[in-house]
Design goal:
Layout lengths: L4 E14 L3 E14 H5 L3 H5 L9 E6 L3 E16 L2 E8 L31 E11 L2 E9 L5 E11 L2 E10 L3 E12 L2 E12 L9 E11 L4 E10 L26 E9 L5 E10 L4 E13 L2 E14 L2 E14 L2
Antiparallel strand pairs: 1-2, 2-4, 3-4, 4-5, 5-6, 6-7, 7-8, 8-9, 9-10, 10-11, 11-12, 12-13, 13-14, 14-15, 15-16, 16-17, 17-18
């Protein structure tokens, strides 16, 4: 069965400066989608307009049996800086991750590794306070609310020790889990090392949920200006149930639900045979699903502001007792203005 769809994806970023301390940011994501995905899935258009934030800032301008135009404000915040203190309020990206593929420390803005066309990543409706305690250290406190009016609140302290960036965080997620974690980023010789671990312990109102520990460790290395590689492993004592591969794309997964297998392993190699051309191959192994993901890609620059990409994503796993194979091919031309 072949399913064909196309998307015109546009992004507009605006910034206004009120003096030297205040910045006002508005960023809009506009998508016009046509094809089989809409005509075959009655809930596709509604899902495209779904907004997990406290405020619904996603709208379907118009839609039909095989097309939909959606616009979303995924950044809308005010940032104020006074000396070492920084205050941000509104929809913003809060990135606490250290690792490159799986990010259990990213408790406010979990994203999918497979969603290659959303490099900006989702935002959260939050209040964020950051205080720089030194050149390489800072303390942060964040309060976020979601569409269900549930609060996620946590604090983080990051610092540098022996040429290694370390961080510790603690708080609660969704008013259901006490959350604590740590992350690191450093180097052993020419090898970069990145890791994260987060523990989610349920409160009494969590409906019988179990404690979940997710830990990940990765290494990456640039062998030359043409060849880079990375590898990462992840462990979870309580992996989430995967009902279908659409779960990996539709969003809504939390940092507690990153793992679908007790152990997972990933690798990626990128090679540039000539300037402006990059060939990559990424793969992920899910032992508990008897499956894997493989994703080759080619990217090249056609002009100063025009890029061409070809990507293939192959999934092969056993989900709910049934063997599942899916192939997704993408051609993308991107113009930056």
């Amino acid at each position: 069965t072949w399913i064909n769809s196309s998307m015109m994806h546009n992004r507009l970023n605006f910034k206004a400066y009120a003096g030297g301390r205040t910045t006002i940011v508005l960023e809009l994501r506009n998508r016009f989608v046509t094809g089989d995905m809409i005509s075959l899935d009655p809930g596709y258009a509604e899902g495209l307009s779904a907004d997990d934030g406290r405020f619904d800032l996603s709208w379907n301008i118009f839609s039909g049996s095989s097309y939909v135009l959606n616009t979303m404000a995924d950044r809308a915040y005010i940032d104020f800086t006074a000396g070492r203190l920084q205050l941000s309020i509104g929809r913003q990206r809060i990135n606490w991750s250290q690792a490159l593929i799986w990010n259990p420390n990213d408790i406010f803005n979990t994203y999918s590794f497979f969603d290659f066309d959303y490099v900006e990543r989702p935002g959260s409706d939050a209040l964020r306070v950051t205080y720089s305690t030194g050149p390489a250290s800072a303390a942060e406190a964040v309060i976020k609310t979601d569409a269900g009016k549930k609060v996620t609140a946590a604090g983080l302290f990051r610092f540098s020790l022996l040429n290694t960036d370390l961080q510790f965080l603690a708080g609660e997620t969704g008013e259901e889990f006490f959350t604590a974690g740590t992350g690191l980023s450093g180097a052993i010789g020419s090898l970069s090392v990145r890791g994260e671990a987060t523990l989610f312990t349920p409160f009494e109102n969590a409906g019988g949920e179990k404690s979940t520990l997710i830990a990940t460790l990765g290494v990456d290395k640039a062998f030359s200006d043409k060849l880079t590689a990375l590898a990462q492993v992840m462990y979870s004592n309580n992996p989430a149930d995967l009902t279908g591969f659409t779960d990996l794309y539709e969003g809504g997964l939390t940092a507690r639900q990153l793992a679908f297998s007790k152990f997972s392993a990933a690798g990626q190699v990128s090679y540039s045979p000539v300037p402006l051309v990059t060939i990559s191959l990424s793969a992920i192994w899910y032992p508990d699903l008897d499956g894997f993901y493989a994703g080759p890609s080619v990217e090249c620059s056609l002009a100063e502001n025009v890029d061409f990409s070809f990507l293939w994503q192959h999934f092969n796993s056993t989900i709910e007792g049934a063997e599942t194979r899916i192939n997704l091919g993408f051609i993308r031309i991107r113009y930056s203005f």
